[in-house]
Specification:
544 residues, alpha+beta, three-stranded antiparallel beta sheet, 14 helices
């Protein structure tokens, strides 16, 4: 069978009777060499098909979930498929998902430029422009205030939770801004910078990263160690997984972007010294970014890792008012003990640590990060993935799903975990490819059975049920997933050309997509009922 592995078929439009493109992940290939296993077949180039679906979902979301002009763009919170109307106003977090999905589709267009030149020519410039419009309209969420933090008192212009009616006038004081919102924006600004080379995106990402770093609890305990951790926001004492780990990967990107040959030591860093006196030092920006990527990762691993291998949600659900203390004539924020970890273990809080481990391993070569990556990827599968249905002998696994589209954020949380498997793929290829395969399988099933008004239900296997309301937030997550899967298929799929064998009446054990046994001693009639795909039946390959 190994002799059948061929180079990528260059002509994507050839008829199926001439060439059949079969995707075979690195994971599937490794199993294929050891035991009978199916490989997932489709009539078209799977990577291009994934990209087309990502584009369709992205464009549908922009058409139905956004309103206004390029100078006053607003995202609806919900969309009703029955009335075909948007409702409410999205917070900055869902709005950032539009940046994410656009970035992801642009990445896929770049990756598949040779395979799909027509798509590149049609959409690349469009989405570069779309990024610009999204960025310009972020200003409706931006406002300014003076923050009293642990080691400095400074004025900042950052992004609030809610959209204002006027640019630069959003309320950002107290609990009206949170650090994780800035982190998601930093991530997408860095991706946009890498895709377009627009220096403004990089500078804004640096500025927001400085704001996040300022939220680090730099006061020291009795042993002289920093308490560490970043609170959910300046108006909270609780320290969350979502206000720490999401910045790790972008900080590594910022480190690489800042560490130029002519970089100067012009970054002022404020902190507490060994005696808890507030001081500052001037250093290189890149050094601060990499140091904090390591520190934040280490803090979350130490304080929020559960015994089952995934991550708690937070420390300190109820911790009272913000505390302050004076040093000389200046008032600073004081440390508050927040107790033990707790809350729900969400997929995204493990996904951000998985991406962080992959990024830190890539730039440091420290094997401890690779070990963390391997154990965390398997723990996320064991804890979060559950088989929900077996259809025609094929098992479908899903990660957590909310009761309705308006009751939770698991669809986007799962998207964060999926992209973490993509980040981990170079270092944990076999296992991560397995997880990506199930995401692909679920998305395809939902797309082929339940696509309605250009949108997908949050339950891709069981469908819409009684729901008529969705969120652009969720649809953007699906678009981003399809775009990442397109890149995965391009990068790791191997084309196999099958010889024409005519009809097959093979009988025997049938193995499915994931290498598991689908049916023992299947008859020719059983085999004829299998869904389309490539299987191992008995000791022979069978194309259905």
């Amino acid at each position: 069978m190994c002799k059948m592995i061929a180079a990528e078929i260059e002509d994507n439009n050839k008829d199926m009777s001439t060439n059949l493109r079969i995707r075979l992940s690195a994971w599937a290939l490794s199993l294929l060499l050891l035991s009978p296993v199916a490989v997932y077949a489709q009539e078209k180039n799977v990577a291009v098909a994934d990209l087309q679906r990502a584009i369709g979902l992205l464009d549908s979301t922009f058409a139905k979930c956004f309103t206004g002009s390029n100078n006053n763009l607003k995202m609806y919170d919900t969309y009703d498929l029955k009335s075909k109307r948007g409702g409410g106003t999205a917070d900055v977090w869902p709005y950032t998902a539009a940046l994410e999905a656009t970035n992801s589709v642009l990445e896929a267009l770049e990756a598949l430029k040779q395979e799909a030149p027509n798509l590149y020519d049609k959409y690349h410039a469009k989405y570069v422009g779309q990024l610009r419009v999204l960025y310009d309209n972020l200003a409706y969420y931006r406002g300014s205030y003076t923050l009293i933090s642990y080691a400095s008192v400074r004025r900042w212009s950052i992004y609030g939770v809610h959209r204002a009616s006027t640019k630069e006038r959003a309320t950002v004081t107290g609990i009206e801004n949170v650090y994780d919102d800035q982190m998601w924006l930093i991530r997408e600004l860095m991706r946009a910078y890498k895709l377009t080379g627009t220096a403004e995106y990089l500078h804004e990402a640096q500025y927001l990263a400085d704001y996040v770093i300022d939220g680090w609890d730099c006061l020291r305990d009795a042993n002289g160690e920093e308490y560490g951790g970043i609170t959910w926001g300046p108006g909270y004492n609780s320290k969350h997984a979502c206000s720490n780990a999401p910045i790790v990967q972008p900080l590594v990107w910022l480190y690489k972007a800042s560490a130029t040959e002519d970089e100067k030591a012009d970054y002022t860093y404020y902190y507490c010294d060994a005696s808890n006196k507030r001081v500052s030092t001037t250093t290189k920006r890149s050094e601060v970014y990499l140091a904090f990527a390591k520190k934040i990762y280490a803090w979350q691993k130490k304080h929020l890792l559960k015994p089952n291998g995934v991550y708690w949600d937070m420390m300190g659900g109820v911790t009272g008012a913000i505390q302050y203390e004076k040093e000389g004539t200046t008032t600073y924020r004081a440390h508050v003990d927040v107790g033990n970890p707790g809350g729900t273990a969400y997929t995204y809080n493990s996904g951000t640590m998985l991406s962080g481990a992959a990024e830190l391993y890539r730039v440091t070569g420290d094997e401890s990060y690779r070990a963390d990556l391997a154990s965390l990827s398997q723990a996320t599968w064991q804890v979060f993935a559950h088989m929900v249905k077996r259809i025609n002998g094929v098992a479908y696994y899903q990660y957590p799903i909310d009761e309705s589209a308006t009751n939770g954020f698991n669809t986007w949380f799962d998207n964060v975990l999926m992209r973490a498997y993509w980040d981990a793929l170079p270092y944990d290829g076999a296992f991560s490819a397995k997880c990506l395969t199930y995401f692909q399988q679920d998305l395809d099933y939902g797309f082929e059975h339940y696509l309605s008004d250009g949108f997908l239900p949050i339950d891709l296997i069981k469908g819409w049920k009684s729901d008529t309301v969705t969120k652009g937030f969720h649809q953007l997550a699906f678009a981003a997933e399809y775009a990442i899967l397109a890149q995965w298929q391009k990068k790791t799929a191997t084309a196999i050309v099958l010889p024409k064998t005519g009809k097959t009446s093979s009988e025997g054990n049938v193995y499915g997509l994931d290498g598991t046994l689908i049916q023992r001693k299947a008859t020719s009639r059983d085999v004829a009922r299998l869904p389309h795909g490539l299987y191992i039946v008995g000791s022979r390959k069978l194309l259905r």
